[in-house]
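re: that complex we talked abt at group meeting.

here r the seqs, copy pasted straight from the sheet so there may be weird spacing, ignore it
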Amino acid sequence: MLSIAVHLDYAVPRPMDILLQLHAARIPEQRVMTENFVLPPYDHVAPVAAQDGIGERVWVRAQERLLVDYTATVEIDRILTPCAQLDATPLHLLPGETVQYLMPSRYCPADRFHDYVESTFAGLEGGALVIAMRDWVQGHLRYVPGSSNSDTTAADSFIMRKGVCRDYAHLLITFARAAGIPARIASVYALGVDPPDFHAVAEIFLSGEWHLVDATGMAKEADMAKIGVGRDAADVAFLTAFGEVSFNAQWVSVERG
Amino acid sequence: MLSIAVHLDYAVPRPMDILLQLHAARIPEQRVMTENFVLPPYDHVAPVAAQDGIGERVWVRAQERLLVDYTATVEIDRILTPCAQLDATPLHLLPGETVQYLMPSRYCPADRFHDYVESTFAGLEGGALVIAMRDWVQGHLRYVPGSSNSDTTAADSFIMRKGVCRDYAHLLITFARAAGIPARIASVYALGVDPPDFHAVAEIFLSGEWHLVDATGMAKEADMAKIGVGRDAADVAFLTAFGEVSFNAQWVSVERG
Amino acid sequence: MLSIAVHLDYAVPRPMDILLQLHAARIPEQRVMTENFVLPPYDHVAPVAAQDGIGERVWVRAQERLLVDYTATVEIDRILTPCAQLDATPLHLLPGETVQYLMPSRYCPADRFHDYVESTFAGLEGGALVIAMRDWVQGHLRYVPGSSNSDTTAADSFIMRKGVCRDYAHLLITFARAAGIPARIASVYALGVDPPDFHAVAEIFLSGEWHLVDATGMAKEADMAKIGVGRDAADVAFLTAFGEVSFNAQWVSVERG
Amino acid sequence: MLSIAVHLDYAVPRPMDILLQLHAARIPEQRVMTENFVLPPYDHVAPVAAQDGIGERVWVRAQERLLVDYTATVEIDRILTPCAQLDATPLHLLPGETVQYLMPSRYCPADRFHDYVESTFAGLEGGALVIAMRDWVQGHLRYVPGSSNSDTTAADSFIMRKGVCRDYAHLLITFARAAGIPARIASVYALGVDPPDFHAVAEIFLSGEWHLVDATGMAKEADMAKIGVGRDAADVAFLTAFGEVSFNAQWVSVERG
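got the structure back, here u go
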């Protein structure tokens, strides 16, 4: 069981719409046992279903200050098949809803990596290919806090050879899509992230199901509570402000509960 | 009524999965009266629902040659409210399924255009804002066949000031998203496209519904049959080959039927 | 007369070559009256002529710590013809050494801006054109410290509409080159820069000579002491380390002497 | 001895300045024995010294049609020290005029490749390092005519893993600069280029001198006549038109004379 706590404190200079995505998702593979979500009494709070129906986003009409406290306990019950035992689904048998995750996205220009992926991982398929890609990313990037920003794409990370969790995820996703394997990002709460923060990992479609893969090696799939999924980090930001907010304070805590 | 005919002829050097997206969508706003889709007897043909459940994609396992003939007659019954009469939906009231269309995508880096859009279109809202954006794109880009390629983003078009239909659509979509209005791409068959070809336009979410807007000014919304929608051109290509194919011949014809 | 003082203090984790470019240039338009350049006794200090023979760069073989103190008094004797009275030199009459400043460079991709410049500044030439470009940059960018980094090009600034002095200079240079006018960057010490720091401005070739133009409007051409020139900021950094150094302290002071 | 012939034929819709750079350079390492340069009688033809004083550029004020015939015979007398025997010059001993070739340029964003180069070529220095870089480029890129365009940078080629001669040169130059070795581009006439065309190679500063290195492996350094040098392809285009010209015909022939 994971015990999660989040505190956000941002100044909001003028009334503004803010999209939060930080609830642990209520999905079969994890059970939200307790949950508490506290905001000051704003004008308006509207939860909407998040991407692919996994988790939820909350629209907040904020003013002056955004002050959020979220706590939850989540029991993880994820089937964890070793990646090596998984198969790629032939493209022409892919379900319709996975097709969008073959396409390039803002941070994952997979269309530019076909030749690289084909020559670098020649002869590998399915789970073995994904493991090789994960190991490549883990072995070739350095984890350097502050080395990337909201403009950094997987192409940039591929060149610069450094990044943070989202960059690791983006590059692995880009490689997988370039090889014809659907891949998306998952924002998660995970044990073992140091310093504690929101975490992002890749989710790869193998043997007919989505499988979490953390290219940073920081967290285990069994110790992650999913928040939401998307094409890349643009879709799963914990806070998207439609205007300029300024940071006061923030922390995330994830512990074995 | 639109009478549509498409002919595709590509060489396929080795057995390969190809994704086609060229069927006129069966949706309330248009009625597919007759339709014929002919391929040689390949190993496998699998239709899957396309993005947002609008239209369909077809997986084809092709070999040696991809030879497609598609014909359809489509009756358009689209409610055409003048754009100027439409309102923006406040962000915190947007339905969950539209949220993904606020986000930047491969060809539409809307996150980079906030300041530009805010200062350029200050004081405008809803339909009036979208009209101003459409006019901006139409007035500032030159339509130059061959001036863009599959790597060209809306940022490139904004600088280069030229492009083709997809570039016009991408830039309008980018502007709309940067202003907090959901916007997606629609691939369509349209009367008036010269030379006749697949066409791409923006679709903007106003007054609670999606509205087609053609920034090239080439086609009227009443004369378009939708094929599919997506975040940008990456999602709605009529042909996505997972390998290298070579072009033999292709034509598209759209006439008043 | 300008009274200049610079203090640099960087930690140098391993012996490393560092290129400094911070001496006021000894050129006809400005007279270095007094000058003092103090470093700890390093292994090696080698001055070399800087780009176009304007100013000098100093190679330093540093270890442990780079500690530089530079002071100078400089009398400016620059002929200041109002820009509006200057003419463009026809391209085919340009001296050979100015040709390189027509070409795109790392931060100034002028090749991409031909159409934009041609349509935006139609009908203008020579000094009047340069004034219009300078006013455009000043009017369309916001000066936001921290809004750009060492990867930011003029194309980025054109989209983002914000930046610092180097971004202003880059965009003006890009516009001028795109219009067929040689333009380079000049690093300067200037009165009026707030907070005091190294400053960068454009230098434009008109009426057969180079003319300083500050698109930020912060400093007057009469109050600038040139350090060096180059194609863009890559050429005139005050400190280029061939390895990783870490910042301890730094300040720049420019006063009327 | 090389026997060179070039024919250019372009339509020039309106009077326009055009910069040609196609004369074999008159420099110690090669002797221009005979030379003939024929243009129709235009308004104005002005030769100017090219970059670093190597070769020349010719300004042409053209109208209606640009028709150029150039022939030359050139004896090559280049000292060809095997690259492996050459040493890197320590940075702090580099002559001032080589410093600009350490800097990033339009097509060679060397600043982004430090980490990659450091980890990939660890332990190598001087000529051995350059050979390893050349072999890397030759081994990892595919030569695919038409696969790049005038917007393609070394960063793009590094990702796409294909290109033509200029892309090979750009990537090698980028690697060398990232390792602190001055590197520039040289446009050359070379035996063995198939199909015959202008050719571009890297030139690397080792043991105190510039050395030609062809990462495509198509041509030998002994069989190249230099036209000019520059930071990258932007500086050494054989034709730079300040306006739009349209191609009629062009050929290049290089034979053992």
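couple things i noticed - Chain D has a mean pLDDT of 95. The two ends of chain D are 5 Å apart (CA to CA).
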